[in-house]
Amino acid sequence: MRLAVLKERLPGETRVAAVPDSVKKLTALGIQVVIEAGAGESAAISDAALRDAGAEIVADAATALAGAGVVLTVQAPDDATLAMIPRGALLIGTLGAAGNPSLAQTYAAAGIDACSMELLPRITRAQSMDVLSSQANLAGYRAVIEGAEAFPRGFAMMMTAAGTVPPARVFVVGAGVAGLQAIATARRLGAIVSATDVRPAAKEEIKSLGATFIGVEDEESKAQTGAYAKEMSAEFRAKQAALIAETVAKNDIVICTALVMGRKAPIIVTSEAVAAMRMGSVIVDIAADAGGNCGATVPGERIVTDNGVVVLGYRNWPARIGVAASTLYARNLLTFLTNFWDKDSKTPKLPPEDDIVKGVLLTRGGAIVHPNFVQQAA
Ligand code: NAD
């Protein structure tokens, strides 16, 4: 079985879906790994390192994809690439099916069996394949590092002969995977950290990392018992906006990470709240891909507001830490493939009744099989 990995086409994408370690393990399964030349370059992985691990390096995407039975990718392939993927191939990546309802139809029409890995169920067995978690964790870390770089004072308290530099105050919005890593990272750098979330379970997690919990606690937030937060009512949002405005005015750096699955990100830090922040403060909005949590965020941009607040609204934060992100992502895909590898036929076998398969598989044999998208297509 041939497995193809291409250079990612999306501008700004630095990650690659296979790294030397995963290539070695894929090869050990009896897979012929074929990689487009230069695919790992932006993640600091040379063709030579991938070749040494057992991959065949070929000049272009068409050659890599010819005869491929499996294609590993980070982003959904563009139209030109899609047209080169053989019918019957299994495509595995963060395809973004929820944000693009016609995608499942496209793959069905192309006869490609597609796994949209961001739809993986959050169950214990799937943890080591969880691309959202591995990438969010690194994004949360990177957000703090870039926030620190943009902040003109420093994070840790410094007592010197010339006087004391106070510690930075960091406020983290959303304490899921990214937010908890942001809290831990900011603490390690010496900041005084507080954080908010709407799920009651997050409160203890925030406190266990040594941060202060700040949040509206009412009947509506108490009902947020699922793994994912739901969209909050207008009444809750008004109460939250007042508390957050008061909080951000006292902080130097705000790290925004709050998401609601399948929806636009909630605006939690309003433009009015940003206007009350001190000059030199920094907002890092890693929810920018979903519109952002801050009213002043311009997705994809670094801006400075009229009152001198820097707002980093870059997209695709995992790509800003591409080496580590590629390593963890490649490991997630390897684990997925290994889990469903049939040793006898030396091909992946995805049992339709398996919860993980049910979660991620969009199409099979030219038909849409994912319950969320069958309905949309009908
Ligand atoms: P996410 O990316 O969907 O959202 C980030 C955070 O934003 C969440 O904590 C959410 O509650 C919060 N949020 C949403 N709306 C908000 C609002 N209006 N105000 C404040 N905060 C808001 O979440 P995630 O990082 O993917 O994690 C979601 C949950 O899943 C967490 O409890 C996490 O521990 C859990 N999880 C479980 C597994 C597993 O069991 N395998 C794996 C990963 C994550």
Topology (SSEs and partners):
Elements: E1 2-5, H1 20-28, E2 32-36, H2 47-52, E3 56-58, H3 61-65, E4 68-75, H4 79-82, E5 90-94, H5 103-110, E6 113-116, H6 131-150, E7 158-160, E8 163-165, E9 169-173, H7 177-188, E10 192-196, H8 200-208, E11 212-213, H9 219-222, H10 234-249, E12 253-256, H11 271-275, E13 282-285, E14 302-304, E15 310-312, H12 322-339, E16 341-342, E17 347-348, H13 355-360, E18 363-364, E19 367-368, H14 371-377
Parallel strand pairs: 1-2, 1-4, 2-3, 4-5, 5-6, 9-10, 9-12, 10-11, 12-13, 13-15
Antiparallel strand pairs: 7-8, 14-15, 16-17, 18-19
Residues 122, 127, 130, 132-133, 136, 174-179, 196-199, 202, 227-229, 232, 257-261, 266, 268 line the site of nicotinamide-adenine-dinucleotide (NAD).
Q: Descriptors for this entry?
A:
alpha/beta; binds nicotinamide-adenine-dinucleotide; six-stranded parallel beta sheet
Outline the structure in words.
The relative contact order is 0.15. The mean pLDDT is 96. This protein has 378 residues and is an alpha/beta fold. It is globular and about 65 Å long. It is built from 14 helices and 19 strands. Strands 11-10-9-12-13-15-14 form a seven-stranded mixed beta sheet, with helices on one face. Helix 1 packs parallel to helix 12 (322-339), helix 6 runs parallel beside helix 7 (177-188) and helix 6 packs antiparallel against helix 12. This is proton-translocating NAD(P)(+) transhydrogenase.
